[in-house]
Every structure is written in C-alpha cells, then in structure tokens.
Specification:
There is one protein chain. The chain has 429 residues and is an alpha+beta fold. It is built from 15 helices and 16 strands. α1 runs antiparallel to α5 and α5 runs parallel beside α9. The longest helix is centred in the middle third of the chain and has 18 residues. It binds adenosine-5'-triphosphate (ATP) and magnesium ion. The site of magnesium ion has 2 residues, from loops.
Length: 429
C-alpha cells in the first residue's frame, strides 16, 4: 500500500481484538469517577494555538516541539490539543461555571496529539482520561484525586506495579525565589551542563532538574533544594496531603526532582510510575495549578487535576496478564439457521428474544454455508450455546439448543420458552 494511504506514523488504529480491553478500562474509570461525583465534560479536539501557548507555557517541550499546528482557511492558527487541561479551563471560563466560586469536579476522555518520536507507550495520537477540580484549595482534594486513582489500580489489579511520586513546587513566589537560587548555582557551573540544560537555564531553569544527562545530574546533586524554599502555606498544604495519604494507607516517595513539564503547576505535583513499560514509565500525572485560571483571564480560582495515558495502562494490563477472562467472550449465543424459511423465522425469533433479554449477546449466522461450517463459526465465536433452526425445527416451532462449552446434550426448546430458558442459563448463569 502506498505510504500516503497508510495511517500516519504514531497514530494507531485500535482493532476489534483490542477494543474490548479499551472499553473495559474506560468503563471502569468512568464508573469510578461517576461514583466519586465527577461529571464528564467534552471539549473540542482543536483550539486556537494561543490557548496552549498561554496556558502550557511557551518554553515547554509541548509548545516548543510537539504541537500539531496549522492555519485554517480563515488564517487562524489552530492546534490539535496536546492535553486536556487548557481546553477544560477555557471551557469553564467561557461558560462561567467557576466564576462565582462554584466547585466543579470534572473529567474528560479523548485523543491528544503530540509530535514525538513514536515508540512503545509513546505515540502521536494517544488517549487520556483526566480530571480537573476547580475552587477547592485544600490538600483533601489533592488526596481524593490520588485516592481514587489508587482505587482504580486496585480494581484493575495493578497496585503492586505502580509507585506514587510526590513533590511540592510551592507558590509562584516561592518558586521564583528558588529559581533565582538555582540559576545562580547553575550559572557558576555552566560548562558542566549539557546543551539542552544550558538553554533551559535561560528559558525555564526548573526543567534542568528534569535532565536525563548523567553529567548534569551529577552537578545537580549539590544544587539548592526546592524543599528548602517552600513557603509556609505550601509546606502546610504538603504536610496535609501526606497525612491524608498516610491515613488512607497509600505508599509514596517524595521525589524532589519531580517538576513536571508544564508551567502551570504550583504546590502539589505527582506521578504514578511503573517499571513494567520500559522508558515510558509514567502512567498518570497531575498536580495543582492555582494560578492558571487567573493567568487565562478568569478570577483567581484554585485548580487541581491529573491525566492518565490509556495506551500505557492498557499495555500494562496486558503485560501483567490482568485482562479479565470474560473479555475473550463477546458472544453468548450463536444462532445458526438453515434454509430460507428458517432464516426468516430466525430473524423474528431473535428479535423477540432481544425484546425480552436486552443484555443478551446474540449473533445470527443465517444462510452462510453448511451446517458444519456454521457450527465451526459458532464454536470459534466463543459463544456458550448454539441455537439451531432448520426445516424440522421450523415445522415444530422449536430450536435446537446445544451447549458449546463442557458437557450437555442438545435439547429442543419451544420458541415461546426460549427467552426464559436463555435467561436462566446465560444471563443469570
Ligand atoms: P512523558 O514524560 O512520558 O513524556 P508527559 O509528562 O509529557 O509524559 P503528561 O503531559 O503529564 O505527560 O500526560 C499525562 C500522561 O499521558 C502521561 O503520564 C502518559 O501516561 C500519557 N502520555 C503523555 N504523552 C504521551 C504519548 N506521546 N503517548 C502516549 N501516552 C502519553
Ligand atoms: Mg512528554
């Protein structure tokens, strides 16, 4: 196939074999968020480029190198969203739903786009589920976000494989004081820094802490520590969060180098990381962004949130063999009909059954091939039972009911009794 007719590198089809696991994951998260009182919001996939520059920050990996930006036909610069927070803040501001101090606990799901080097766990179109909470400024809500993700890991069976890393970035003022100290320290050691860090030192010095370069890391060992510059308010907030995590029995490690890539964070930042996915180890990341709404033209509004990467979590479920068994069976009952009259009867019979059992997963295979080949398909579908409807059954208004898994002889069931019979052996069983 010519390259221009293939999918774009790093933008993947999610095939029918994979979608059951995706839906299981998404459904589990959605139910949990509903139960904690979060409400879903859906934002467009495209926004004005300016929105991301203003909120994420000009000197960040995302804005500098990763955005899909284009001019539309009016000449406006638009960008495929690289993350969800900016658009969510835009939406709450635009609709005035936080401006009076109303608490909003929101979540979203959908594709995000970043022009990165594709590799396992890192794609150019990927999917996130995220939460954003507005107008709650205490550590209790930071803790709730972490507690609910911890519950999610429990439900998915992957708690043992993830680790929580925490840090506090302090208020904007505290961070500014720290930045000055860090710049002074690093400027005196400029020749020992890698090129990227030298550049960041001028543009976004905190990001130097993020470096993967061993020489720069060595320089950082003696650098001033952000923790020593924390303001009293942030310190109390951070202690409050830790106390709540302790009370909830959630283990964590403090990672003083955790600064997160985006400009808008303040106070709490956290990441859930795993060693099961190689280099792409962060499965969920978030933090507090108390200054962001104001920075975008709203009233001062505390905010906190996180986003998790669906691809990475799906990969983890597979790697840890935590794909629920039930997902391998997408069909309960497989109806094989033979002959034109039986086919017609099969359609109306199956619709009657569906009326009574809306949750039954019933697949009809009518008219396609011999008895043997239909039966093979029924078996391959994973269905628990096959129903057989040929001329004899039609004449007697019955179906043949044959268990496909385990023991059990074929029985004849009257059409009128079929739904009740299926209810006992499939829906309840
Ligand atoms: P990383 O350090 O891995 O680049 P990030 O800090 O850029 O991650 P965030 O912007 O915090 O990531 O996004 C939250 C989550 O979304 C990440 O923890 C990850 O699980 C997922 N994610 C981010 N970028 C990608 C991507 N390109 N492909 C797949 N998942 C991604
Ligand atoms: Mg990134």
């Amino acid at each position: 196939m010519s390259k221009s007719l293939q999918a774009i590198r790093g933008m993947n089809d999610i095939l029918p074999e994979q979608t059951p696991l995706w839906r299981y994951f998404e459904g589990t998260v959605a139910r949990l968020l509903d139960n904690y009182g979060y409400r879903q919001i859906r934002m467009p996939i495209v926004e004005f480029t300016e929105l991301f520059k203003r909120s994420i920050g000009e000197v960040t990996d995302i804005v500098e190198k990763e955005m899909y930006t284009f001019d539309d036909r009016n000449g406006d610069s638009l960008t495929l969203r690289p993350e969800g927070t900016a658009a969510c803040v835009r939406a709450v501001l635009e609709h005035g739903i936080t401006g009076g101090g109303q608490v909003q606990k929101l979540w979203y799901i959908g594709p995000m786009f970043r022009h990165e080097r594709p590799q396992k766990g890192r794609y150019r179109q990927f999917h996130q589920i995220g939460c954003e909470v507005f107008n709650l400024d205490g550590p209790d809500i930071d803790a709730e976000l972490i507690v609910l993700t911890w519950r999610l890991w429990g439900e998915l069976g992957i708690r043992d494989a993830v680790k929580l890393e925490l840090n506090s970035l302090g208020t904007a003022e505290a961070r500014a004081r720290y930045r000055d100290a860090l710049v002074e320290f690093l400027s005196a050691r400029l020749e020992h820094l890698d090129e990227d860090s030298q550049r960041r030192l001028k543009t976004n010095p905190l990001r130097v802490l993020d470096t993967k370069n061993p020489d720069t890391q060595a320089v950082l060992v003696d650098a001033p520590k952000l923790a020593d510059y924390l303001d009293e308010e942030s310190r109390v907030h951070f202690e409050g969060l830790k106390a709540r995590l302790d009370a909830a029995g959630i283990p964590y490690v403090i990672n003083p180098k955790l600064v997160r890539g985006l400009d808008y964070y303040s106070k709490t930042v956290f990441e859930w990381v795993t060693d099961k996915l190689g280099a792409q180890g962060t499965v969920c990341a978030g933090g507090r962004y108390d200054g962001l709404v104001e920075q975008m033209g709203g009233k001062p509004t505390p905010g906190v949130g996180f986003a998790m990467g669906i691809e990475r979590l799906v990969l983890m479920l597979e790697a840890l063999d935590k794909v629920p068994q039930a997902l391998s069976r997408q069909v309960d009952v497989y109806l094989c009909a033979f002959g034109e009259a039986a086919e017609l009867a099969a359609l109306s019979l199956s619709e009657r059954v569906r009326d009574q059992l809306p949750d039954l997963r019933l697949q009809i295979n009518a008219g396609a091939g011999s008895f043997k080949s239909q039966f093979k398909k029924a078996d391959k579908s994973g269905a628990l039972y096959a129903l057989i409807l040929g001329d004899d059954e039609l004449a007697q208004q019955v179906v043949g009911f044959k268990p496909l898994r385990g023991q059990g002889e074929q029985q004849s069931i009257a059409w009128d009794a079929l739904a009740a019979h299926l209810a006992t052996c499939v829906v309840q069983g």
